[in-house]
């Protein structure tokens, strides 16, 4: 498998800040596209205030570069203002993919 490494991130927005978080995540796409080690990057919404990021990487080094990169920095820089709780960042191993 060419992308065995991943992150699954659950992000809960403050209700009054949900649209701002949605805009931040939408605007982060070019940052993800610019990361050579990030193979896939998805930002999704499952409720008015619950967001998820799922991304895959070809190596552990690429995964670590991503978590130390601009998207994570932007999210954490706005955490106090936008988030109801700290993001839940889970390193994951991809078992199967299509």
What average pLDDT do the residues reach? 96
N-to-C SSE series? EHHEEHHHE
Alpha plus pi helix count: 5
Radius of gyration: 13 Å
Give short descriptive properties of this protein.
single chain; about 100 residues; alpha+beta; 5 helices; 4 strands; about 30% strand; globular
What does this structure look like?
With 98 residues, this protein is an alpha+beta fold. A hairpin with a 4-residue loop joins strand 2 (38-45) and strand 3 (50-57). It is globular and about 40 Å long. It has five helices and four strands, in the order βααββαααβ. 37% of the residues lie in helices and 31% in strands. A four-stranded antiparallel β-sheet has the order 2-3-1-4. It has helices at 18-27, 29-34, 60-67, 70-77, 79-82, and strands at residues 5-12, 38-45, 50-57, 88-93. The mean pLDDT is 96.
């Amino acid at each position: 498998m060419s992308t065995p490494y991943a992150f699954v991130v659950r992000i809960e927005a403050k209700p009054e800040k949900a649209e701002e978080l949605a805009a931040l995540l939408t605007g982060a796409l070019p940052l993800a596209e610019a990361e050579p080690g990030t193979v896939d990057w998805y930002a999704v919404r499952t409720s008015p205030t619950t967001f998820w990021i799922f991304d895959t990487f070809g190596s552990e080094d690429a995964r670590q570069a991503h978590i130390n990169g601009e998207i994570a920095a932007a999210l954490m820089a706005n955490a106090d203002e936008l988030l109801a709780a700290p993001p839940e960042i889970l390193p994951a191993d991809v078992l199967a993919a299509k």
